[in-house]
Amino acid sequence: MVISMKIVFNSSPLIFLSQLGFLEKFLDSNDNFYLPATVQQEINAKQD
Question: Computed from CA positions of residues 20, 35, 12, 5, in that sequence, does the dihedral angle turn out positive or negative?
Fold first, then answer.
């Protein structure tokens, strides 16, 4: 039996990975990711 799982993010880990320069490498993996619309809006609104 194969279980398919998705990784769901909130904004803090994505922002942290981006600041460390690891976000692109992490998202290039073979995992399934789900980014809720509210998280996307929060990231787009954040000005660091």
Answer: negative
